[in-house]
Amino acid sequence: MESDGSKDNFRTGTIWTAVAHIITSLIGAGVLSLAWSVAQLGWIAGPVAMVVFALVTLYSTFLLSDCYRFPDPVSGPHRNTTYRGAVRANLGARRAWLCGLVQYAYFYGICVAYTITTSTSIRAIRRSNCYHKTGHASACHFPDLIYMILFGVIQVMLCQIPNFHKLWGLSILAATMSFTYATIGFGLGMAKVIENGKVKGNMGGISASTSLTQTQKVWRMLQGLGDIAFAFPYTSLVLEIQDTLKSTPPENITMKKANLFSLSITTAFYMLCAFLGYAAFGENAPGNLLTGFGFYEPYWLIDFANACIVVHLVAAYQVFCQPIFACVEEWFSHIWPDNKFISKGIPIRIPLWGSCRVNLLRLCWRTAFVVSTTIIAILFPLFNDVLGILGALNFWPLVVYFPVEMYIAQKKVPRWKLKWSIFQIFSFISLLVTVITAAGSIEGLVKDKKT
Q1: How far apart are CA 177 and CA 309, in angstroms?
Q2: Which of 195, 241, 344, 356 is most buried (most C-beta within 10 Å)?
Q3: Are the C-beta atoms of residues 432 and 380 closer than 8 Å to each other?
Q4: pTM
Q5: How far apart are CA 206 and CA 36, in angstroms?
Q6: Is 118 exposed, middle or buried (0-12, 13-18, 19+ CB in 10 A)?
Q7: What is the number of other CB atoms lying within 10 angstroms of the CB of residue 219?
Q8: Burial, 26: exposed, middle or buried (Cβ in 10 Å; 0-12, 13-18, 19+)?
Q9: Phi, psi dihedrals of residue 72, rounded to the nearest 5°
């Protein structure tokens, strides 16, 4: 928490810079699974689910925007610059610790998911070139293992660069890459619909009368819901983005407008990708729109889209792992402030780079972190299942529970009154959604791992 005026000279952001930050953090690899998710739910439940998750996320961001200043959302003298800081100010240290645990578990899972997605995209480039040269019926199979290891080696090196995630060009690069591959995805979907001459899909989603039993269909629908939830992940970053805004007009007013505008644009963009992908492939919509090979040509465009995914996720991995690094290293420094292993940097000389200082704790701990995410990705290389679990993990605690509880504490809403009861029902229903979507995704993970 910071006192008012401590960084005001540096806070010059406007509604448009906030919109840019929000869209950058929203549009990512999750958009590639949306066509598959809608295919599980059908033309009725699919769009409804996307709109509902978008509205819940929007309402959550409105509640969070009022938690930036403390104790009053407009005139409070203290500013909560992080999600966890807002939880600590409004709900106490114990729940702030729980919030941090959930956040970091979610960030760790995203690093695993990005390792899987990057290796899948690299493999897709090789397969696309193979199909182009030898024909679509060829057995163009390439293992994921080598690409996951390569991605891990790159991340080990990038992890040693201090404040890499804060480099000014990183957000621009990520936004450009994510918009590019998502646009290519729905463009190819539109071309496929035109080529087919009809809109595929049905009202009830994937058929239970063919390859799936009714129970399997239900599990797939729940997994699809989890993937949709994963596509709206930015609530943890709302207060960090709000902390860039200038104080006039009030930050919460500006942020609410930015949230509404950004989510409207992003949801419309998501729907284009999801609906065109489903309309193009129907029940056979691939789990990843750009790597599932519903599209074979133009092969160079598919290669380019997958290359954009790789570049985006190489950078995005750092955005999510760096807060974990900072937390753990700060804890070590607090416990053992005089330990040379933790505090001392060793000078080394790198060919073609020059001399630099390497901290042994940073080197060992960050390398171990990347190795662990790589190993888990190798053991569970299942894109849709992992995204569904992460969407479930994020939804109730970070999107609903903490924002609702902070609002209740801030506004001093009396227990058992109508407003309090409505909030509790909303939170309970969201918890049920998290539980059932997590169950569906875990069932899919276990089933797919066996096969």
Answers
A1: 7
A2: 241
A3: no
A4: 0.87
A5: 10
A6: buried
A7: 20
A8: buried
A9: -100, 135
> Cα(405)–Cα(421) distance, rounded to whole angstroms?
12
- pLDDT, tens digit, 9 for 90 and up, residues 308-317: 989 888 888 8
Please, how many CA atoms are within 13 Å of residue 317, restricted to the half-sphere of its CB?
27
Structure tokens at 267: 């949801």
Omega into 397 within 30° of 0, i.e. cis?
no
Which residue type, as a one-letter code, is found at position 221? M
How many angstroms separate the CA atoms of 19 and 56, rounded?
18
Instruction: Enter the tokens of residue 449.
Output: 């791992």
pLDDT tens for residues 425-448?
999 999 999 999 999 888 888 887
Cα(242)–Cα(66) distance, rounded to whole angstroms? 10
Residue 369 in tokens: 């972190």
Cα distance between residue 250 and residue 146, in whole Å: 51
Contacts (Cβ under 8 Å, ≥6 apart) of 60: 235, 399, 400, 403
Looking at residue 109, its amino acid is: G
**Bridge-partner residues for 345, per DSSP?**
359
